[in-house]
Amino acid sequence: MNAKVTKKWSVYLLSCADETLYCGITNDLGKRLRQHNGEIQGGAKYTASRRPCQLVYQEAVATRSCASQREYQIKKMSRLAKQRLIDTTIS
């Protein structure tokens, strides 16, 4: 019996050292954070010069397609709207 391994996808926001926000998707958030912070190889060029980066928002989604769509929605938001999204998950 072949069991299909299902990886959960996440949409996330990072707060960078220069106070900008970075949005991305991944199916391994811990590894991706280490990549963004230069602990292991990989990560985005954007975050390479803005370290350290701190996770401030995470949203679980079912598929990569859903993650990409949600990432697109979040990237189109204003900074204020992104901050509200972050604040509603904290409180």
Number of domains: 1
Q: Number of DSSP strands?
A: 3
The largest pleated sheet is described as: 3 strands, antiparallel
Radius of gyration: 14 Å
| Mean pLDDT level | 93
Strand content: 15-25%
Distance between the termini: 44 Å
Range of helix content: 40-55%
CATH superfamily: GIY-YIG endonuclease
* CATH architecture title: 3-Layer(aba) Sandwich
Fill in the keyword field for this structure.
single chain, 91 residues, alpha+beta, GIY-YIG endonuclease, 3-stranded antiparallel sheet, 3 strands, 41% helix, globular, GIY-YIG_endonuc
Q: Could you describe the 3D structure shown?
A:
This protein has 91 residues and is an alpha+beta fold. The protein has a single domain, classed as 3-Layer(aba) Sandwich (GIY-YIG endonuclease). The protein has four helices and three strands. Strands 2-1-3 form a three-stranded antiparallel sheet, sandwiched between helices. A hairpin with a 5-residue loop joins strand 1 and strand 2. The protein is globular. The mean pLDDT is 93. Belongs to the UPF0213 family. Pfam families: GIY-YIG. It comes from Thiomicrorhabdus sediminis.
Helices and strands in order, then pairings?
Elements: E1 9-15, E2 21-26, H1 29-36, H2 45-48, E3 54-61, H3 64-76, H4 79-90
Antiparallel strand pairs: 1-2, 1-3
Domain GIY-YIG: 7-84
Family: Belongs to the UPF0213 family.
InterPro entries: GIY-YIG_endonuc, GIY-YIG_endonuc_sf, UPF0213_domain
